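Case study 2.
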Amino acid sequence: MLMADAPRDSELVRTAQAKFDLSVFGLDCVKRAAYRVTGNAAVEIAIEGGFAVCTINFSKAVGRAFADAAVERLRLEVLDQDLRGTIAAETASVRNAVLALAFSRSGLQSND
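Prediction:
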């Protein structure tokens, strides 16, 4: 079988790419997600026309199916990081109240 006839899944690639609309996801969120999925690859982030363009650079050539799965993991992780940020913002006042109460009873502060 000729390479041109080979199925797309058997194609070897060194990079894969995903775009994230910065009006939907913050750059910090994209950076955190990229860091979490960098097991056997490095993620390069560039800003182009209001999008964060993430290029996943694999340390060795991988199959197209593997590259597509890596892009999917990145997409899911960006969504996860976005939701974590939303939850943190929504619960900040409760978290701060709990911490203030815990430290007020810890004996770490002087009563002067």
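DSSP finds two helices and three strands in the chain.
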